[in-house]
Amino acid sequence: MPSIRRREVIGWSLYDFANSAFTTLIVTFIFSRYYADVVADDPLEGAVMWTRAVNISAITVALIMPVLGAVADHSGRKKLFLLIATAQSVVFTALLFFAGPGDALWAGAAFILANVAFEGSQVFYNGFLPEISTRETMGRVSGLAWGLGYVGGLLALALGLAMYYGWIPVPDREYLNVRASTLLVAAWYAVFSVPVFLWVTERAERRRASLRQYAVIGFRRVGDTFRHLRTFSEAAKLLLARLIYNDGLTTIFAMASIYMGATLGMDLGQAMVVGVAINVAAGIGAATFGYVDDRIGGKRTIAITLVVLTAATAVGSLTSSVAVFWIAAVFIGLMVGPNQSASRSLLARFVPDSKQSEFFGFFAFSGKLSSVAGPFVYGLLLTATGSHRIAMASIIGFFTIGLVILLTVDEAEGIRAAERYVPPEDETSPAEEVL
Question: How would you class 7 by CB atoms within 10 Å of its CB: exposed for 0-12, middle for 13-18, buried for 19 or more?
Answer without folding.
Answer: middle
